[in-house]
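Quick log. Single chain, no ligands specified.
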Amino acid sequence: MRIGIDARMYGPKQGGLGRYIEQLIKHLEKTDTQNEYVVFLRKENFEEFKSQNANFKKVLTDVHWYGLNEQIKMPDIIKKEEIDLMHFPHWNVPFFYNKPFIVTIHDLLLLHYPTKDASTLGPVSYWFKNLAFKKILHHAVNKARKIIAPSEFTKRDICKTLNIPLEKIIVTYLAPMDSPVSAGTSVQKYNIAKPYALYVGVAYPHKNLEKLIRAWKIFEEKYGNNYQLVLVGKENFFYNRLINSTNYKKCKNILYTGYLNDAELAQIYSKASLYVFPSLYEGFGMPPLEAMQNGVPVMSSNSTCLPEILGNGADYFDPNDEIIMADSIHKGFTDQNLRSSLISNSKSVLSRYSWEKTARETLAIYKGNT
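-> predicted structure:
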């Protein structure tokens, strides 16, 4: 069988989706020596993927995602490689591609939390773009042989929201990185001088950081200034809006680091006293698992997939209640029995996830849908 993988978003620079593609391919190389693979990459990440398996072929596919070129050029590029089964690891399947394919739908975020506030498009242009997204998404889920979802929550969400039969959707959990990067000994260069709660990720509205900031303001007023809140993530419209907000400026012990590379991020994780995850909507939820991997207690929102993924390795709060969130953060810092229990429980939680398992389960889907 000749399997194609759209890897144009390959690599850590593309966030969680790029990590998923990178780790899936890496572990498929180790798992499958029988099938042939064609990995479609852009110029920017073509050299990042260095194949360790002779059955894996790289094809330069310098076509950006979400544009008209993707719709027009991708089907012909794939056709030339005589692919038996194509894997699109995201919803952006070319509308006129109707050969056998499977698709991974990580979440339905853009349906539940559209990001028109950050769009540079006018209302009419944004409306057309959103309409195109919905049509492409519906084509992807209806024409796919199978749909991969990263959680039971996402599986049910796809079924309910898009009217797709449950039996068409297969859950394959993701995983944190194979092992943490070795960390340094100091975080002073980030102006961290106190025990700190950490958040890593984007600042999109569904991440609920505005309520986290309000909760932190309550925390400081109620419990004092002995702790810091550290936010890590790539600067964008939403982070700029957040750090310029009145509530952010009123807090005395919040700092924003901007984007950090893997080594810097591992250092920040390893020295954190607490990880806080206030999200309103997740398809999987990778950062809390990364925190667990570094022995950091996790205080998490109880929304969507998070109790499913984090299990008893996290303590949960209502993400819509800032007072409860503030009290939960304080408990996470000061309740030593809770902290010890969460750290202990996280070991069994982490044992449920591995990229090797993800690759094996994905390969089984490939084999069953040629």
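The two ends are 8 Å apart (CA to CA).
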